[in-house]
Amino acid sequence: MSDRVAIAVGLLLLGGAPLGAQDSLAVLRRMEARLDSLTADARDSSSAAAAARITDTVSAGAIRVATTARFVPVLTIAVARAWDTVLVEFGAVVQAIDTLPVIAFGSGESPVPGPSAVPELARSFARTATAAIWQRQDAALVRWASTFAPTGGVSASALAELARQMAATPARPNGACLDGDPGACALALGLGVGLDTLSEWYAPDAWPGLADRYSRGVTGADATARDRCAAGDSTACRTFLLPDRLTPPAGIFGRHYLLELALDLGGPGAIGRLCTVGSGSIEARLEAASRVPIGTLLAAWSDSVRAAMPGTPAPPPAVAMLSVAWCVLLLGLALGVRQWR
Amino acid sequence: MFLALLRLQWREGRLALAVLGAAGIALPLLSLRGATGAAGPWEAWELLRASAAWSAWYPLLALAAALALSAGAWAADHRSRHVYALTLPVARWRYLLLRYSAGAILLLAVGAVLWLGGTLATVPVAIPPLLHAYPGGLAFRFCLAAFSAYTILFALHGLTPRAARLLVAALLLLVLVAALADLLALGVRPLDLTVDALLGPFSPLAVFHGPWMLIDV
């Protein structure tokens, strides 16, 4: 019996090896097929995702927006409106521009905005386009105003911050400017500054603080000069505090607000006029944009900033009266109840 | 009778008042600690920065004072189920007015302490030319804000159970409507609208909006 069993086991083992090999091969083939299927799925889904991401370009004028098909209807209206806004603002300046950098909008998952979102989208595209067009303008203008995109208005709290910043900055022209002297405001804004910008803007005792506050990374000789200036070495300050390293006394925001004011006064086409006064001074450009003399523009700027100075934290009489009136009303209501709890 | 109620309310809330008073003195002093105003041309930056950094604490103090004093104005009566008040030969409205006035006087005291703290903090500081110290203005805003919050809370504490239930129901309804509006993407945000209305320029809490800087331009 045992011999027969041994022979049977032997035969099984002999036949078992090819059987096992056949199974492994089948498993391998199944796995390969599965892998192929998974790869194909992944390819399909990634191409579907890609298709859901960027498939269409909506354009109007020089504005191009890369987006998915779902967003096209709403973006078509928004981009057209944005271009109309840019045309009104810049006028002939943008006619020469073929294309602006492509704006990517909307991912596969994000919901499609409704028609109520069109005005905000149009404003956003117009701002992006304006910023891109701005960067193509005259180098002196771009250097003076840095990155600028008109926002159509400046809040009272932003102006109050500007007034605080000017009051806290120990720059020579700031005090007179906040007292209402347009000439000092021009200097604070960097208009008509002479060759020695550092001395015109800041007294020597403020120089170490300026160097200390310079936040961009500097290395080597510059770093040494900055450290020596911060320690009180005026010669090092002259070396380190070059005009492009100086914070304007009214800050970049002060300049942006002057531009906003000029565009607001100038109405349609103001940016176009600002940009097309070829190689003109900043003052000439601002006059062209606003259609008022620079003195008037500066006076308006100064008046607005002074009006926005926060002053005492005591609430204005109207707010105080309203508050008292509410107190009287609510107390009256509370006293009028006849029932105890 | 007013003095008796004032004494009663003082006893009821003296611990809270002591804490509020200490905060009223400490906040301005802490906000300007180490400042002399004569440390150089950039000292104005530091003064404004410190003033701004600590400015959020003043409305919170006003709210805390209003909470403590409005609760103190009603606590004894709620505890005794108004038996003491009902035994007095005065009308309800007169009794409540006395209670309210006693709380308001204690609130004024906290405001006065804040003014004192602000004055003590700013007197030794040489304020730079374009800046000003406003201990009085800050204390005035504090008093008005605290009064507004105190009046609202005082009125809420005095609500009848039915009115309180109605108020809670209205709040729940508002939350429900807000959730529905969000689910249905109606584009309307009732909760935001309510908060805007509560803190808007014509609301009783409008006075909380605005600068709370001890030193400003």
Q: Quick check: average pLDDT of chain B?
A: 87
> What amount of the residues of chain A lies in strands?
under 5%
Spans of chain A of at least 5 consecutive residues whose pLDDT stays below 50 are 5-21
What helical percentage do the residues of chain B reach? over 70%
| Euclidean distance between termini CA atoms of chain B | 46 Å
SSE topology sketch:
The complex is a heterodimer of chains A (341) and B (217).
Chain A: H1 2-53, E1 56-60, E2 63-67, H2 72-90, E3 103-104, H3 118-135, H4 139-145, H5 156-168, H6 174-178, H7 182-188, H8 197-201, H9 207-213, H10 220-230, H11 234-240, H12 251-266, H13 270-276, H14 282-290, H15 294-307, H16 317-336
Chain B: H1 2-31, H2 43-54, H3 57-79, H4 83-87, H5 92-122, E1 132-133, H6 135-157, H7 161-183, H8 190-199, E2 215-216
Antiparallel strand pairs in B: 1-2
Helix pairs in contact in B: 1-3, 1-5, 3-5, 3-6, 5-6
Q: What is this structure, in a nutshell?
A:
Chain A is mainly alpha-helical and 341 residues long. Chain A has 16 helices and three strands. Chain B is 72% helix and 2% strand.
Q: How would you describe this structure in keywords?
A:
heterodimer; A: 341 residues; mainly alpha; three-stranded mixed β-sheet; 16 helices; 64% helix; B: 217 residues; two-stranded antiparallel sheet; 2 strands; 2% strand; flat
Structural summary, described in words:
The complex is a heterodimer of chains A (341) and B (217). Chain A is mainly α. Helix content of chain A is 64%, strand content 4%. Chain A contains 16 helices and three strands. Chain A has helices at 2-53, 72-90, 118-135, 139-145, 156-168, 174-178, 182-188, 197-201, 207-213, 220-230, 234-240, 251-266, 270-276, 282-290, 294-307, 317-336; strands at residues 56-60, 63-67, 103-104. Chain A has a three-stranded mixed sheet with strand order 1-2-3. Chain A is extended, with a radius of gyration of 35 Å. Residues 5-21 of chain A have low confidence and may be disordered. With 217 residues, chain B is an all-alpha fold. Chain B has helices spanning 2-31, 43-54, 57-79, 83-87, 92-122, 135-157, 161-183, 190-199; strands spanning 132-133, 215-216. A two-stranded antiparallel ribbon of chain B has the order 1-2. In chain B, helix 1 packs parallel to helix 5 (92-122) and helix 3 (57-79) packs parallel to helix 6. The model of chain B has no long low-confidence stretch (mean pLDDT 87). The chains are: A mainly alpha (341), B mainly alpha (217). The interface between A and B is large, with 43 and 55 residues.
